[in-house]
Amino acid sequence: MNSSSDAAVGTGAGESAAAPGAPSSAPADSSSSGDAPRRARVGLLPRILVAIVLGILLGLVMPEAIARIFTTFNGVFSGFLGFLIPLIIVGLVTPAIAELGRGAGKMLAATAGIAYLSTILCGLFALGLSLLLLPRMLGDASIGTLENPEDSAIAPYFAIEIPPVFDVMTALVLSFCLGIGLTLVKKGALQESFEQLRTIIVRIIEAIIIPLLPIYIFGMFLGLTMNGQIWTVIGTFLAVIVLVFGMTVVVLLAQYGIAGLAIGRNPLKMLGNMMPAYMTALGTSSSAATIPVTAECTKRNGIPDAIADFVIPLCATIHLSGSTLKITTFAVAIMIVTGMDLNVPALLAFVFMLGVVMIAAPGVPGGAIMAAAGVLSSMLGFGEAAVGLMIAAYIAIDSFGTATNVTGDGAIAAIMTRLSKGRVSGDLTVSQHEHVHGV
């Protein structure tokens, strides 16, 4: 959960200033007189798609000497990513856990608990359906042990070892211990330090990792093409994308079925009222950027302003049911086509741990898969190439997962309305409203 200092992190300047349900003044501020007009920025998804297409096409004709430049970059980048992953976990999970101990008391705890339960149930649903359907859908598709491009068809010019400060499991245990400990003491310099560390980590993701991802994915697909594995990978992605989209529809119908029962409204009508938020999230791929629209749509469903203004900003960072569904499904698919052992107990443990990691995922497009990369490696044994494919697959349909996340936030708001039993004014004080708006 993000603090007020980095509220809508990764979603563009000025978003943190927009209170939920209020019209944002950011565009007007950024286009004030005397300022040169900004050039339109190309989103991450188009860049990733271009990188994939170029990687496939150029992989058919590119000389090995030039291709080695990109495998060299991939080796260095993946080493840096491996170094950064434990720091991402500590920098994001520790302050997220610490902040669960403050804020709006029982209502905060109840909302966080429902959001986590929703995320876990979606992950378990995706896991069960994937284990049932994907072996049949993928048929005989197999690429054996997925190799890193720098280890197979083309070799890098040089390699740089960047060992992490500590491993991923150590980072998780350390984050839990420190985060829980910080909830037991008065806020001081240590917690402020972790909040500053979170800001640093998110800025690194925004300024270095995300901009370089297209190059990394280009090199990954370049190597897969030169290895002759690319067509199996593409066929796998298409089949899984169809399954993921179908599951998101089922998840939203189930969430709003429960929400409709909770407040006595037509669930389909409620879901229809949330469509502006769904479409906005499709365009932005950011839950935080969609907060004002999500809050307004939620209020149209009869949710009190105090509930909507509390739940929607909070769930924008802790409720990632769609993201968990996507990551779980693609993880199972990659394990199947690479011949990895489908260890059900390990996959169950992965889903529960993924629910915790998703709470701390930054709000940048693709931030959820970056936060989950360490768990994929440590708990499922994914190598660098498998993690790279997960990143590419996740970002390719990132907007659909984000849209599922934010639309589900409206269902949680309805459930919280029922739990509040009409005593909304007693649940939130003015100071607590200010805290929640900055989450």
Automatic annotation (TrEMBL):
Gene3D superfamilies hit by this protein: Sodium:dicarboxylate symporter
Pfam families reported for this sequence: SDF (PF00375)
Main location group: membrane
Localization terms from the record: Membrane
Domain of life assignment: Bacteria
Residue segments, region Disordered: 1-35
Transmembrane segment boundaries: 48-70, 76-98, 110-134, 154-184, 204-224, 230-254, 275-295, 310-337, 344-363, 369-397
Biological processes annotated in GO: serine transport
PANTHER family cross-referenced by the UniProt entry: PROTON/GLUTAMATE-ASPARTATE SYMPORTER (PTHR42865), SERINE_THREONINE TRANSPORTER SSTT (PTHR42865:SF8)
UniProt protein name: Na+/H+-dicarboxylate symporter
Species in which this protein is naturally found: Brachybacterium aquaticum
